[in-house]
Amino acid sequence: MTLKDKLQELHSSRGCLLATNFYNFETLAGIIASASLLQQPIILQVTKASIDYLSLPMVVGMAKAAFAGHEAGGWLHLDHAESYDLIARCLDAGFDSVMIDYSEQPFDENVAMTTKIVKLAEQYNANVEAELGYVAKLGQSKEKLGFTEPEEAKRFVSETGVHALAVAIGSAHGFYKATPKLDLERLSAIKEATQIPLVLHGGSGIPANTLRESIRRGICKINLATEIKDTFMRNLHRLLAENNEIDLRKVFPPAIQAVSALVKEKLGTVSRN
Ligand code: 13P
Ligand code: ZN
Ligand code: NA
């Protein structure tokens, strides 16, 4: 099943997929182990920075290999892309889905670029996600939030034909200083106005009950990145401080396990609705 179709199905059933960013073999191994254990489909996603780090063939090869041993299946998604060329290269390389992030551009430019990507993706039967409103990036001020306006979202969706829409409702990338309060009324209004699968960015640091409520109100994809990096690196620091082992194959597994435990918990949250 294509991700486009799967998200449509989840839009109707008020279900949700977890979309986890991976960075290296170890984080990928931790993620896929839990998805397999729970027999849940999952979205594996990478940003340009991870593609620069791993190389495009490596990203595609790793994801393919991970899915080969995972019966519930999954999809490879390009997260937060700002360039047409990168998106075209990823679609050619076999990505199932791409995000065009023109959320910091004026509305009309966001519409124009997203429309272009939707046309391109049609040739691949690939899913396209766009963002309207503004979810603060890592390191950017969370005060600079531009919430998604339901009526504007409706116009955006009908003008672009985009398949899934990332919404700005008070979440932000990275951890939060205080427990985030999502504008759930706004979320419901956006769902009502657009009638398409909605995406929640900034999943790290959002409490499980808030994630569940957002799914009930129409979120069909929840993005999780920072907690994966943080869990892996904090555990790795501890393991390295504790021993002088140079066989990395003996050092990494507990950190992989920790990522796995995190993803298991999040998959539980996302599926239990
Ligand atoms: P977090 O880093 O807050 O989990 O956000 C992830 C994300 O939105 C990736 O696109
Ligand atoms: Zn994001
Ligand atoms: Na976050």
UniProtKB/TrEMBL annotation:
Coiled-coil regions listed: none
Catalytic-site annotation from UniProt: D79
Residues bound to Zn(2+) 1: H80, H173, H201
Alphabetized Gene3D superfamilies for the sequence: Aldolase class I
Keyword Transmembrane helix part of the UniProt annotation: no
Xref: CDD domains: TBP_aldolase_IIB
GO molecular function terms noted in the UniProt entry: aldehyde-lyase activity; zinc ion binding
Any one GO biological process: carbohydrate metabolic process
Keyword hit for Zinc: yes
InterPro entries: Aldolase_TIM (IPR013785), Class_II_FBP_aldolase (IPR050246), FBA_II (IPR000771)
Co-factor(s): Zn(2+)
Binding site for dihydroxyacetone phosphate: G174, G202, G203, S204, N223, L224, A225, T226
Keyword entries, A-Z: Metal-binding, Zinc
Cofactor binding, note field: Binds 2 Zn(2+) ions per subunit. One is catalytic and the other provides a structural contribution.
Residues the entry annotates as binding Zn(2+) 2: D101, E131
PANTHER family: D-TAGATOSE-1,6-BISPHOSPHATE ALDOLASE, D-TAGATOSE-1,6-BISPHOSPHATE ALDOLASE SUBUNIT GATY-RELATED
Protein name, as recorded: Fructose-bisphosphate aldolase, class II/tagatose 1,6-diphosphate aldolase GatY/KbaY
Organism listed in the record: Parapedobacter indicus
